TrEMBL record:
PPR repeat placement: 28-65, 66-103, 104-141, 142-179, 218-255, 256-293, 294-331, 332-369, 370-407, 408-445, 519-556
Record keywords, A-Z: Repeat
Coiled coil location: none
Database matches in InterPro entries: PPR_rpt, TPR-like_helical_dom_sf
Organism: Chromera velia CCMP2878
The protein's name in its UniProt record: Pentacotripeptide-repeat region of PRORP domain-containing protein
Amino acid sequence: MEKAAGGSRWARAWKLYEEMKERGYEPDTITYTALFGALEKAEGGSRWQRAVGLVNEMRERGVKADTPLLNSLLRVLQKAMFYDKWKRALDFFEEMQERGAKPSVTTYNLLISMVAGAEGGYAWETARGLFDEMKQRGLKPNTATFNALIGALGKAGGGSKWETALELFDQMEEMAVEPDTATYCLVMKTLRKAEGGSEWERALGHFDGMKDRRMSFSTSVYDEMIGAMGSAKGGSKWEIAMGLFDELKENGLEPTTRTYNALISAMEKIEGGSRWDIALELFEEMRERGVERNVASYSSLISTLEKAPGGREWRRALRLFDDMKREGVEPDTITYNALISVMEKAEGGSQWEIALLLLEEMKEKGLAPDTTTYNSLISVMEKAEGGSQWEVALGLFEEMKERGVEPDTITFNSLFSTMEKAKGDSHWRTALGLFDQMKGKGVERGTLTYNALGRMFGVMENGGEWEATLAFFDQMKEQDVDPSRGTYSVQMKKGEGGSKWRIAMRLFHEMKERGLEPDRITFSALILAMEKAGGGSEWERPLELIEEMRSKGLLPRDGKHELE
């Protein structure tokens, strides 16, 4: 059976096993260990279902387990292709110990490795528990153990556990366990995935540590470092990334698709814009060097074109999209989302009709539009040349809900902005209806939400429905959301006529108490409210406000002025 292991010969091993039983021989621990070894190496993936059947048979026959059998069984599961295999592995781990198996370092390495691959990365604490358990048993973790656990921390659900990864790295030194290239690569991966790219400098420090140890460098190490520089806090450190890329080639290493994709992505994330020109050069270099340009390569390049100054590269992005399809590279949802964003920011106003065609093409290909898709499309409608396409935006919102795609804060804020820029002032009731939906769905409402609605009320003619807008404004403050100066100005502007000027004055003082400096528009709104006060103009107060404006440099001191 041992000699029959590997490739398609597992069937031969199984046949020998059946023949053995037919001849009356009782399978023992060695028999099952050999069979698990054959099933692990089966061509096309392990035959783990048969392994589970053998475990059931072992129970019935009362066969004892030992360390080689346990490890052989775990290797079968490790190569199985189903997501929750780690749970099955832990169950067998407990059972085989009851049958006499004593776990080894290899046993724990196999278990931690499987737990590290758990879907969503939410089993990292289980991996850490296994690590602590093996030490309590007096088993010394080796490099493979640490690598498996640090790998789990890099995939942790809810964000990279980089602090724990660094603690483990320090433990390696304390326990005289030598880190290898893979260890450094995994540590740098956890640092790359730190929230907001905050740990890029630590990643550089570990990279320098590798150099100090004169360790061998792989392309994967450079890929992680370039990725860390691309996602750095405060904007991509693209110049450092380019330096790493040059160093990679100087060291005789070949850049891969992943290398170029990380570098192109770094060109997109530069603070204040993108180096789309360098990204194009890198993309062309890929072709010249015979490096595969995959869907991520095209998607990243399209995203860099989105950030070209003034949106002037939208036509180039469309040509690139056509080239992609001609080359046989199938665009995915990320590609379409990137291209729709380019259409949103197009020079001279968004290309909303093209964006809608992209949505239809996407659906025809069987790709599911997601929240990002619809959010981008709604923003496209806001920025349409010739005025907001607010009705189309509302239609997209309804389609989104029908398809089971959940709207988020960005969705609603974009809708409010779209309606704010629509012609006429009759949309505020619809906006309040959307706001009620937002509350009903438990979607987070912040300053941007309230201020967008506040600005919308500002375009209502003749100060209509001021009480409704004022009630909304009070609700905003109850939610601990700080209104902007513009929102205060809108409310004051609505306070024209009768005794409303008193409320406008209260808002003016409240605004200053919140640390917001009134500007020319704010003063103008308040003065106009007073000029239209019931029973005659509050003529003294406006004069005082005009003097205050002069003292703040908001009006010239020559006596002449115009108010908005």
